[in-house]
């Protein structure tokens, strides 16, 4: 069942903005749906074999009244030979099965004026065609809704394997008449059984979580903010895409701005991550006080060796780096800018003196980044370059006697950031930073770029689901 949940979320992860602006948008093309076709095919094959087909009973006129009751109906084997998966505008997706075959086992209880018999039978179906459409929408809480929108069944051929007394009826009263009765009964029952089974799928899909814990600090809310919209070329969904601090859930002050993914079919999947979503990540970590870094004396001593002439003034020190407000992301074509504001707080104690002094360096800076994403060995690789646009520092201390040294410290910190810290981070980004990719999903030939107000990723995908 988890395979269909992955498939539905994959297809539901697809919308044109109508009501609420999303933080993230995902769009799947027909090329992407063709990729999902094999998953849908395998799923339907397994589900048809698991169908609970109700007992069938009735009467037919075959040279006299023939009463029948067919029980314990089970699809022993079902294979789809030719099929396709397409979008249905304003509905969802449609599976067209042009040719399939099945083996059906059942128990027959027959009464006729010439005979009365009970026995097990085998039906071999072929040239069986179905058109099954699923409607995908959302409920009031943003969970996906799945329902069987329509179903058509057309089984053209059936071979009946009878034994004993029923074989005599088949020979005496006509094989074709009995086949017509069986085809009529099956064509009326298969879609009914699928409709009942789809209710179970709907309950499972509707219960899928719409939030995910990223780490101990933040979680993402990826509920649908609008019902998916389907055209004959693609499907498009709007996802909330808001990050929250786990221990301090606060709605971002700003709402997401509208943005539109291009109408294209070159890749399977298109992902848009808005400026709003990136800023909600930064705000969530800030709200959870995760943007703090403490230094011991030993660590600080190692760090400040890079600050010209400052180490000598800090014989014993401890400190911390903390953000004074959440970083702010701004996205422009081919450029991402991050505005940073923070403080470096140094608490120093000179040799053989009980008193200590605190030095605070307030930093406001702007950094531009050009990033791209690639895939290697089932991991995502983020590469790019950083440029320091501007930096402003202000040094404060309770010890006014050291005011003459503030300018020296300010110069040293600025020099450290400009000539050591930013180049080091730039070099690391150029070499690449790896992050785990989505489980069971591999990005193939991903292309990423920054647009006005959103970051875009175009990619083909492959999957490697583990065996159940």
UniProtKB/TrEMBL annotation:
Q: Could you name the Gene Ontology cellular component terms for this entry?
A: extracellular space
Q: A Pfam family matched by this chain, by name?
A: LBP_BPI_CETP_C
What SUPFAM superfamilies does the annotation carry? Bactericidal permeability-increasing protein, BPI
According to its UniProt record, where is this protein located?
Secreted
Question: Where do the Lipid-binding serum glycoprotein C-terminal domain residues begin and end?
Answer: 263-459
Query: What's a GO biological-process term for it?
Result: innate immune response
Q: Which residues form the signal peptide?
A: 1-19
SMART domains membership: BPI1 (SM00328), BPI2 (SM00329)
Where in this chain does the record put each Lipid-binding serum glycoprotein N-terminal domain? 28-248
Q: Does Glycoprotein show up as a keyword for this record?
A: yes
The Gene Ontology terms for molecular function here are: lipid binding
Q: Print the keywords alphabetically.
A: Antibiotic, Antimicrobial, Disulfide bond, Glycoprotein, Immunity, Innate immunity, Secreted, Signal
Superkingdom to which the source organism belongs = Eukaryota
Classification via PANTHER family: BACTERICIDAL PERMEABILITY-INCREASING BPI PROTEIN-RELATED, BPI FOLD-CONTAINING FAMILY C PROTEIN
Member of which family? Belongs to the BPI/LBP/Plunc superfamily. BPI/LBP family.
Task: Please explain the role this protein plays, according to its UniProt record.
Answer: The cytotoxic action of BPI is limited to many species of Gram-negative bacteria; this specificity may be explained by a strong affinity of the very basic N-terminal half for the negatively charged lipopolysaccharides that are unique to the Gram-negative bacterial outer envelope.
- What is said about its interaction partners and assembly? Monomer. Homodimer; disulfide-linked.
Q: What is known of its domains?
A: The N- and C-terminal barrels adopt an identical fold despite having only 13% of conserved residues. The N-terminal region may be exposed to the interior of the granule, whereas the C-terminal portion may be embedded in the membrane. During phagocytosis and degranulation, proteases may be released and activated and cleave BPI at the junction of the N- and C-terminal portions of the molecule, providing controlled release of the N-terminal antibacterial fragment when bacteria are ingested.
What is the protein name given in its UniProt record?
A: Bactericidal permeability-increasing protein
Q: What's the source species for this entry?
A: Microcaecilia unicolor
Its gene name is LOC115476534
């Amino acid at each position: 069942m988890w395979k269909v949940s992955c498939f539905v979320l994959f297809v539901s992860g697809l919308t044109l903005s109508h009501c609420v602006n999303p933080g993230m948008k995902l769009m799947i093309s027909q090329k992407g749906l063709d990729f999902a076709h094999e998953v849908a095919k395998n799923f339907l094959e397994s589900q048809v074999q698991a169908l609970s087909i109700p007992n069938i009973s009735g009467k037919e006129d075959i040279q006299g009244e023939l009463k029948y009751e067919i029980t314990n109906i089970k699809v022993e084997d079902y294979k789809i030979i030719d099929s396709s998966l397409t979008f249905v505008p304003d509905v969802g997706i449609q599976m067209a099965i042009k040719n399939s075959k099945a083996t059906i086992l059942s128990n027959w209880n027959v009464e006729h004026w010439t005979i009365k018999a009970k026995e097990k039978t085998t039906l071999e179906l072929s040239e069986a065609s179905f058109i099954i459409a699923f409607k995908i929408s959302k409920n009031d809480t943003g969970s996906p809704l799945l329902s069987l929108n329509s179903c058509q069944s057309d089984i053209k051929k059936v071979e009946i394997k009878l034994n004993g007394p029923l074989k005599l009826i088949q020979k005496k009263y006509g094989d074709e008449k009995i086949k017509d009765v069986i085809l009529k009964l099956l064509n009326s029952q298969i879609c009914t059984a699928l409709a009942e089974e789809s209710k179970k799928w709907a309950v499972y899909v509707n219960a899928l979580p719409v939030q995910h814990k990223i780490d101990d600090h933040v979680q993402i809310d990826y509920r649908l903010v609008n019902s998916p919209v389907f055209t004959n070329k693609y499907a498009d969904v709007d996802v909330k895409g808001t990050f929250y601090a786990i221990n301090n859930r606060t709605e971002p002050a700003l709402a997401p701005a509208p943005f539109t993914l291009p109408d294209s079919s070159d890749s399977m999947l298109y992902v848009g991550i808005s400026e709003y979503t990136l800023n909600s990540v930064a705000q969530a970590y800030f709200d959870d006080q995760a943007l703090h870094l403490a230094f011991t004396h030993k660590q600080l001593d190692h760090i400040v060796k890079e600050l010209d002439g400052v180490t000598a003034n800090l014989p014993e020190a401890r400190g911390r780096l903390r953000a004074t407000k959440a970083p702010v992301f701004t996205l422009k074509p081919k450029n991402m800018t991050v505005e940073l504001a923070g403080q470096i707080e140094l608490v120093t104690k000179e040799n053989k003196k009980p008193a200590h002094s605190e030095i605070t360096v307030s930093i406001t800076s702007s950094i531009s980044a050009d990033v791209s994403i690639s895939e290697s060995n089932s991991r995502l690789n983020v590469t790019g370059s950083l440029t320091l646009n501007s930096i402003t520092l202000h040094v404060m201390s309770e010890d006014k006697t050291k005011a003459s040294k503030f300018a020296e410290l300010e110069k040293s910190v600025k020099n450290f950031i400009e000539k050591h810290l930013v180049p080091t981070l730039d070099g690391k980004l150029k070499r690449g930073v790896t992050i785990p990719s989505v489980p069971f999903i591999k990005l193939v030939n991903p292309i990423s770029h920054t647009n006005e107000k959103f970051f875009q990723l175009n990619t083909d995908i492959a999957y490697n689901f583990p065996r159940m």
